[in-house]
Amino acid sequence: MTVSMTWRRAAALLIALAGLAVTPLAAADAERRMPDSAEQIRLSYAPLVKKAAPAVVNIYAKRMVQSRQRSPLFDDPFFRRFFGDDFFGGRQRQQSQNSLGSGVIVRPDGVIVTNHHVIQGATEITVVLNDRREFGAEVLLTDEKTDLAVLTIDPDGADLQHLEFADSDDLEVGDIVLAIGNPFGVGQTVTQGIVSALARTNVSREGLQAFIQTDAAINPGNSGGALIAIGGGLVGINTAIFSRSGGSHGIGFAIPSNLVEAVVNNALMGGEVVRPWFGASGQPVTADLAMSLGLDRPGGVLINRLHPTGPAAKAGLTVGDVLLAVDGHGVADLEELKFRIATLEIGGVTEVDLLRKGRTIKASLELEPPPEDPPRNITLLSDAHPLQGAEVANLSPALGEELGFNALDVGVVVTRIRRGTAAHRMRLRPGDILVALNDTEIESVGQLVDLLRVDQGNWRFTVRRGRQTVNLVVRS
Q1: Which regions of the chain carry the CATH code 2.40.10.10?
Q2: Which phi and psi angles does 72 have, rounded to 5°?
Q3: Residue 30 has pLDDT above 70, yes or no
Q4: Catalytic choice (116, 117, 162, 385)
């Protein structure tokens, strides 16, 4: 009896073990093994960090800000009632304010990239290297639209360790990346994560947008720091986070290196950003539009306006075309189209893919700078009329690019308003486009000056403000 039971139990155990050996779970467990060498145990990002870290610097920006010095007694309603708000306004004084960010050395002679917002308004910029050496920095170029700034320091003939640009278009979602910067001023810090998304648009309300999204921890102070790939190349400049608390929630954004490199090249060639002009505008292709156009999915940009002499018109694009790709890279929306054009160099030619009446075709687009046509003719209106105190200019593709307008906008734009003038009291704003005066369309600064010389009786201005059109009436 005892022998029989022992045999049966042994047989059952062997059957069970045989069954386990062929299950998927057991196969997966068999692939898991302990490191079999000291080299495998020591696998680390340390060699990569050792090479990249000296190229990431701290940037201290000093600003002078206005502040008021006043006593808490000035907030007492009794005293304010008898002496008024102006009396207790306090004494204005200038105060020094310091901010901290990061930067990346991209050339051995001391060319550094950081964020525009890190050094904006700075009166003094100090760069501190990884080895604690300090240098005063000069600004070669600052570009608010890309949130990038290019600085230079003098290393006194020594070559500095720097990072080479890598092709950000080689990145794929899931690739491992490292973020290096100085979060919260605690000192240089390295975090690791993956690429969570590419060409992320609509992150902010303005500027060129097609960000790399990563879950590598990025915090305040990381701005301007490096996002590097496993190969050691610079693939992005860390610029923003999505956060409800001010700390990292695993959603960080970096400016792709291809755009960063284009801005650096502009800085080295003269210190002015001139981006290629497309000469057309469009709208994203929604699911409904995709269905009507015969596309199997939403994507691309539907061309709805063309400048008659712009590069897009010269290349043969027409209203109704759907632009699908630039230089072989798919375009999901208008923001990504702007980004793709901005990474290209003026003077070259790029190929675009179009959908036209159900057929896919290609066109060659010449990369030209936006023209200054008509000349801007900046004029301060100073005579006695409702626009007295407004500075106006003719809109051209070049000026529109500078001011952040659609490059196809035409007419007369308000560039500045002097406080306390008639235009200020009328509540005009910089950026307003003067469309018409009474029933006459305004086409140029010269024509506007002539119209203002004539007594209009009641003055009715039609003004385009962003996407809205407003009427401002001044009665004689």
Answers
A1: 168-268
A2: -60, -25
A3: no
A4: 117
Q: Which residue carries 């075709």 as its tokens?
A: 361
Percent of the chain with pLDDT over 70: 82
- What CA–CA distance (Å, rounded) separates 352 from 347? 16
Segment 319-348 shows an average pLDDT of 90
Give the integer Cα–Cα distance in Å for 323 and 444: 33
Q: What is the mean pLDDT of residues 450-455?
A: 87
∠ CA(165), CA(170), CA(171), 5° rounding? 95
Specify whether the CB–CB gap between 308 and 168 falls below 8 A: no
Q: What is the mean pLDDT of residues 206-215?
A: 81
Other C-beta atoms lying within 10 Å of the C-beta of residue 85: 8
Fold (CATH) for 280-366 = Pdz3 Domain (2.30.42)
Nearest to 179 by CA among 203, 148, 214: 214
DSSP characters over 174-192: T-EEEEEE-GGGS--EEEE
Q: Single out the catalytic residue among 99, 223, 281, 396.
A: 223
Catalytic residue status for 147: yes
* Contacts with 379 (C-beta within 8 Å, 6 or more apart), sequence order: 391, 392, 393, 445, 449
* pLDDT tens-digit series, residues 43-71: 788 888 989 999 999 999 887 666 555 55
Quote the mean pLDDT of the chain: 82
Q: Give span(s): CATH 2.30.42.10, the chain.
A: 280-366, 379-474
Q: Could you tell me which residues come within 8 angstroms of residue 436 by beta carbon, excluding any fewer than 6 positions away?
A: 442, 461, 462
> DSSP letter at 439?
T
CATH 2.40.10.10 fits 168-268, yes or no: yes
Residue that is written with structure tokens 């001023």 in the block: 185
Band of pLDDT at residue 21, cut at 50, 70 and 90: very low
Tokens of 358: 């159900």
Tell me if 311 sits within 8 A of 367, measured CB to CB: yes
The catalytic residue among 99, 116, 143, 147 is 147
| Arch. (CATH architecture) of 379-474 | Roll (2.30)
